[in-house]
Amino acid sequence: MPAATYSSHGHAADMAPEQPDHHAFDGFQWTAESAKKAAAEIAKYPEGRQASAVMALLDIAQRQVGAQTGTQGWLPIPVIEFVSRELLMPYIRVYEVATFYTMYNLVPVGKYHVQLCGTTPCMLRGSDDVMRVLNEKGIYKGQTTPDGLFTLTEVECLGNCATAPMLQINDDNFECLTAEDTARIIDMLAAGEQPQPGPQNGRHSSEPAGGPTTLTAMVEKNHDYRKEWA
Amino acid sequence: MPKLTVDGIEVEVPQGATVLQACEAAGKEIPRFCYHERLSIAGNCRMCLVEVKPGPPKPQASCALPAADGQEVFTESDMTKKAREGVMEFLLINHPLDCPICDQGGECDLQDQALMYGRGTSRYDENKRAVTEKYMGPIIKTVMTRCIHCTRCVRFAEEVAGVEEIGAVGRGENMQITTYLEKTTTSELSGNVIDLCPVGALTSKPYAFRSRPWETVKTNAIDVMDALGSNVVYHARGPQILRVNPRVNDDVNEEWVSDKGRYGPLGLMKRRLDKPYVRQNGKLRAASWEEAFAAIKAGLSGLSGEQIGAIAGDLVDVESMAALKDLVTALGSSRHECRQDGAKIGGEVASPRGGYLFNTGIAPLETADVVLLVGANVRWEAPLVNTRLRKAVRKGGAKVFAIGPEIDLTYAADWIGEELSTLSKLPKAALEALKKAERPAIIVGQGALSRADGAAVLAAAEALANDIGAISGEWNGFNILHTAAARVGGLDLGFTTPGGIEALAGEAAAGKLKALFLHGADELDPVPFKDLFTIYIGHHGDRGVGHADVILPAASFAEKNGTWVNMEGRVQHSFRAVYPPGDAREDWAILRALSDVLGKTLPYDTYEELRDRIAKDWPHLAVPGLSAPSWSALGISGAGAIGADPLRYPIGDYYLTNPVARASEVMQECAEVILRDEHRVLEAAE
Asked: Which SMART domains does the entry link to (chain B) (predicted)?
């Protein structure tokens, strides 16, 4: 797969990209499974308000393209127009949505879409190390690796500040990363294995790293603190 | 009715008014970019911030804030002033300071408001953002770096034009306004976004780098490219009309004008007839006025009155037609005809004025609740009537039924068949809806009336109008949609002959008609008339001159004072913007001089005397505006039945409907690019 060129912000959707060869998707149609999902999304809204389902349908379409191409999927122009027709919307209205949201890819991405958060909390907790490791693995911002496996996008906050730094790879978050964790995760993915998502340092979620510091009595069993507050 | 104070001035505004409107009512000017009276409220430019009490201790966007009882608004407080300076500073961060090379310079909202409400100097020394130009077609030139993202163009395209092709893609700092995939906008009203754009992002491509607004002479005029009578301003420099802008007239064109009205008149500098011509040995040669008049005298000599005919074109003014009618009448003929397309309206078909007018009126059409279109491609025949219909559908929930080949009208229509005979046996749903409607409107297009069975269509439409109660008291729902600016004026003058153009063609074939005046008549089939002694009076060397024996160069609509009557019967005066080129003269003066040569001197020596003469016979044409409606039964008899011929719309190519538009390069390019999708090689530099 050719390396797609991204804009300075690393987001594929910045502005009407020169889409590579989207004519392969002329005549795009739902698969039976996608059609069912799309119908369910449209059914959520009152009759005549089907346009409200545009974001869901674009996502379904992107995932279908992903399944067809063995990647994380993207939205070629014929697919955007297909969704417009499904929802009786003018093309430009759907195109506006597709270019506005960063989770819609307007150029092809790899099998693994690696999104690195570089916002302040992640940066303070070492996202630069993560970026360095990714670069060492040949994964560069705004590019897809020549083997078509990884596409790296630098993104703004994804809401994992308490478990920074983090990577979002496809639909999973990998948190509390060190350089070693990052290397391990990338290597496992490259080898076709599935690393365990979530915090990589043994935390269950975003609880304090050294165990709870407050409400310690609640760890084992339910405890009524109200008497102690009197 | 909320009562509030603006800078201490108490004002009372209607329920639902905004603070911005209240400020205007108090005589305070509020700067704005995104807010526009005729578009929905966006509230995204923030330039209209004012201080409002009670409310949060921060400035508020007055365009989007409803006026409420007891509010105190401060438009000159320190908070307001600081807010405006801040917004302006942010707007200017990414706006190039290229006013000297910007076509908007001198009529730019940003320029003016930066001067009035901005800081004196810039504190910004970072890099500015730059945006690539977007292709939007032959009319709109884009310099998108100048865009401040007010989205007026996006809202206009969606709400007024009904062609959703312009949008904002990307987000935040990367937001850009573009047409979908940089295709040409296909609206007939796209030029209006040029006027709407408060900065120089969307400017007029044909007008690019032509002049500054203070260099042109502005003349109030009436657009003749369609029968709406849009109020426009011609901007002229020297002999040339550089551009046409709309004037506000809420009863007619609001503040829009069609692309043809805007760029058609650019054809006035091309293919002009600037001297008289006389045909000698089968070839036209330039001649003097005396020679031309002598040739006419020779050509008409020995002919009796009824052997001389006259056909008036679609662009001519009332005064010219009156003078021609007087001349032909003085020659003893009644063979004068203005219905070039053979429409069966007016004259002997249906004499009351209501029989050929758009009786509902253009503005009141917005309030119609059920509309029936009969062979009318409203979008092409009168784009600004279509916007009114679209408003009726969007805002009033009107239901539109249509008879004719299916087209995209920009709103939903129920197509109930292509055959005109449907008119007398409407489907139950349509008939019931029309009967139940409080303000039903039937709109009959020229495509339905210019057929052989046109009179039958007119009779059926009248019968239907009576059947559904479309004509009652204040409301008259019987409408004829016109395409020719001169038509209603011509019918008012009685510039008709029994049998219309077909009768004239028949007489020509039978050798009864021997000579013909073509007064700017370029839209008729020349074949039946090709052997007649033909005198062409007009301004463009178009279809009409092909078989002419004498050509008299006349002034165009922009080169004379004149009166036009629009399709609803509104009398409007237009003024001379430039002088006719070369030897061309005003039509009435040509006819007056010719009458002298022919020994039938017309009784007026000045334009004013001609107007007095018109006022005497047709008093309503002397008073600008609408005269009282004159409706009575049309009394059509012996119309026969409606035939089964397929219905065809009269306009095949929206951009090239008259000689002036055909001479306009912009209109030619629009026709190529928009209608036929043939793209010329893109201009490299633009």
From this structure: NADH-G_4Fe-4S_3
Element (H, E) at B617: helix B607-617
Whether the per-residue pLDDT at A11 is higher than 70: the answer is no
Per-residue confidence (pLDDT) for residue B681, from 0 to 100? 54
What's domain B359-481's superfamily in CATH? Dimethylsulfoxide Reductase, domain 2 (3.40.228.10)
- The whole-angstrom separation of Cα B590 and Cα B459 is 40
B-chain residues within 8 Å CB-CB of A92? 164-167, 179-180
Domain ranges for chain B, please list them: 3-93, 109-267, 359-481
Residue from B144, B181, B408, B411 to probe the interface with A (highest A Cβ count within 10 Å): B181
| Facing A93 at nearest CB: one of B164, B176, B182 | B164
> Whose CA is closest to B501, among B309, B251, B274, B300?
B309
Contacts with B53 (C-beta within 8 Å, 6 or more apart), sequence order? B71, B72, B74
DSSP strand pairing (B571-574 vs B562-565): antiparallel
Q: Among all residues of chain A, which has the CA nearest to that of B164?
A: A90
Q: How far apart are CA B171 and CA B595, in angstroms?
A: 69
Contact between A20 and A108 (Cβ < 8 Å): yes
CA distance B551 to B553: 6
pLDDT reported for residue B473: 79
Contact B180 A92 (CB under 8 A): yes
Give me B189's structure tokens: 């009203």
Q: Across the interface, do A15 and B169 touch by the CB < 8 Å criterion?
A: yes
DSSP-derived letter for residue B183 is: P
Instruction: Report pLDDT for A195.
Output: 94
Which DSSP string corresponds to B636-673? --S--PPP-PPP--S-S-GGGSSHHHHH-HHHHHHIII
Which one, of B86, B69, B83, B92, lies nearest residue B22 by Cα?
A: B69
Exposed / middle / buried, residue B675 (Cβ in 10 Å: 0-12, 13-18, 19+): middle
A9: distance to nearest CA of chain B, Å?
10
Instruction: Supply B667's token pair.
Output: 């209109």
Distance CA B384, CA B21 (A): 26
B319 sits in which H/E element = helix B318-330
Give me the phi and psi of A150, to 5 degrees please.
Answer: -120, 135
Do B359-481 and B3-93 fall under one CATH topology? no
CA distance B529 to B508: 6
B229 within 8 A of B243, measured Cβ to Cβ? no
Radius of gyration for chain A, computed over Cα atoms and rounded to the nearest angstrom: 21
Q: Tell me: the pLDDT tens digits for B265-321?
A: 999 999 999 999 999 998 999 999 999 999 999 999 989 889 999 999 999 999 999
Own/partner pairs, B529-536, CB within 8 angstroms, 24+ separation:
B529/B504, B529/B505, B532/B309, B532/B508, B533/B299, B533/B300, B535/B296, B535/B299
Beta-carbon separation of B165 and A92 below 8 A: yes
ipTM score here?
0.89
Question: What 8-state DSSP symbol labels residue B9?
Answer: E
**What 8-state DSSP symbol labels residue B680?**
P
Q: How far apart are CA B201 and CA B103, in angstroms?
A: 9
Check whether domain B109-267 has CATH 3.30.499.10, yes or no:
no
Q: Which of B221, B219, B236, B231 is nearest to B257 (CA)?
A: B231
Query: What sign for the dihedral angle of Cα A122, A123, A124, A128?
Result: positive
Q: Is-above-0.80 flag for pTM?
A: yes
Query: DSSP characters for A56-83?
Result: HHHHHHHHHHHHHHTSS----HHHHHHH
How many CA atoms does the CB half-sphere of B245 hold within 13 Å?
18
Give the max Cα distance, chain A.
72
